[in-house]
Amino acid sequence: MADESSSAAAPDELPSTTSNSSTTNVEFEPPAACIRRLMKQSLPKSTTVSKDSLAAISRASGIFVLYLTACANDVAREGRRTTIVAKDVLGALRELDFADFLPAMEAFLESHRRDERNKKEEKELMKLNKSSSGGGGGDGNKIKDVTTGNSRV
Fold it and tell me: Residues annotated as region Disordered (predicted)?
């Protein structure tokens, strides 16, 4: 775990939010269906999971997400930024002694960024194709009849 000089919140000091000048603890639990799906994918088929253990893992994962978020926020603030970016999350994982997960996270981020770039390029290509086939010669009010293929006003 991080040493005492770390500015990350301790697990029992989860981030809080202020609403109407009263402070309440932020709570987050991923949906049980998502946790159940993750557990089914990672455990042998012969393993059964009780409702209590599902609830406990769901709660623990929510606490971990909040703790990692608080630590990533601290990393961002150390960099004099108010926006948490991927490198802050990686820095938080390193600070929380989860460095073993960094190669998998970096590979995931690379793949995710590539997928997002491809989606953006496809969307721009579709937009270009649509504008070039749509004309712009005053056909804005015409509707194409799907059954006959003819345009009508």
Answer: 1-27, 113-153
